[in-house]
Design brief:
Layout (H helix, E strand, L loop, with lengths): L5 E2 L6 E2 L2 H11 L3 E3 L9 E3 L6 E2 L5 E2 L2 H8 L3 H15 L5
Antiparallel strand pairs: 1-2, 3-4, 5-6
Length: 94
């Protein structure tokens, strides 16, 4: 083994650079992506059984960061976020 190689602890694959390892991890092993500054389990999306992250509109992405970029332009996501925030405004919490 080359001493400069990074070994994936999940599958044992070896990478010559840390950047290649990071890309591999995000594609193959990352389970959740955060959407906002999440403090609980509501601000994230988990990878589905097919190994992809799924948007509200139905599009699927291998990498979570691609979904994060997509959701900034996704009209269906924006409509859902708007309707969720409007329904929360009417709730009074004591």
């Amino acid at each position: 083994m080359n001493e400069t190689q990074t070994v994936c602890k999940h599958c044992g694959d070896r990478f010559n650079t840390r950047g290649k390892y990071d890309a591999h991890y995000k594609r193959k092993h990352q389970k959740k992506i955060k959407l906002n500054d999440w403090k609980d389990d509501e601000g994230h999306i988990e990878r589905s059984m097919d190994g992809k992250f799924t948007c509200t509109c139905g599009k699927k992405f291998v990498k979570g960061e691609t979904l994060v970029l997509h959701r900034k332009k996704c009209e269906i996501w924006m409509e859902k976020e708007t309707s969720d925030s409007e329904s929360d405004e009417g709730i009074l919490v004591n």
